[in-house]
């Protein structure tokens, strides 16, 4: 993912990420769409919150950033995996998030 220079509303409220397999609930996490080196003060924004915790994007060497949405176990079956990123605590208009793809990686023990 990338966040454009003219982005707005992405860091005003934490978002919820969810991953599930079939009818089974996988994992739900809190996510902040702000990069650590571009964090800005938004004290004039009445919707801005700086709640602690949650996941934040990690910058990669190629200029893109990534964020872990969650974990799931699919087992031996052939089931659909559903992933979501959504705002559930507010209604702030958002713009400037660029998503090029979703990569699924095996978890190493």
Topology at a glance:
Elements: E1 2-8, E2 15-21, E3 24-31, E4 58-59, E5 65-66, E6 81-86, E7 95-98
Antiparallel strand pairs: 1-7, 2-3, 2-6, 4-5
Regions with pLDDT < 50 over 5+ consecutive residues? 41-49
Helical element count? 0
Number of self-contained structural domains: 1
Shape: globular
- The helicity comes to under 10%
Let me know the average pLDDT. Answer: 80
Question: Approximately how much beta-strand content do the residues carry?
Answer: 25-35%
Q: How many β-strand stretches? A: 7
Round the Cα radius of gyration to an integer and report it: 15 Å
Instruction: Give the class from helix and strand content and strand pairing.
Output: mainly beta
Biased composition (Polar residues): 20-32
Pfam family, one: PP2
Protein name: Phloem protein 2-B15
Organism: Actinidia rufa
Notes on the structure:
It is a single chain. The chain is mostly beta strands and 109 residues long. It has one domain (2-98). Helices cover 0% and strands 33% of the residues. The chain has strands at 2-8, 15-21, 24-31, 58-59, 65-66, 81-86, 95-98. The strands form three sheets. It has a three-stranded antiparallel beta sheet, with no helix packed on it. Strands 1-7 form a two-stranded antiparallel sheet. Mean pLDDT is 80; it is low at 41-49.
């Amino acid at each position: 993912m990338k966040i454009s220079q003219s982005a707005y509303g992405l860091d005003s409220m934490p978002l919820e990420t969810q991953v599930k397999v079939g009818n089974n609930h996988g994992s739900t996490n809190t996510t902040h769409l702000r990069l650590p080196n571009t964090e800005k003060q938004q004290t004039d924004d009445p919707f801005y919150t700086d709640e602690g915790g949650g996941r934040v994007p990690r910058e990669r060497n190629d200029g893109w950033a990534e964020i872990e949405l969650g974990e799931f176990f699919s087992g031996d079956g052939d089931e659909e995996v559903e992933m979501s990123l959504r705002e559930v605590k507010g209604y702030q208009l958002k713009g400037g998030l660029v998503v090029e793809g979703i990569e699924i990686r095996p978890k190493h023990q």
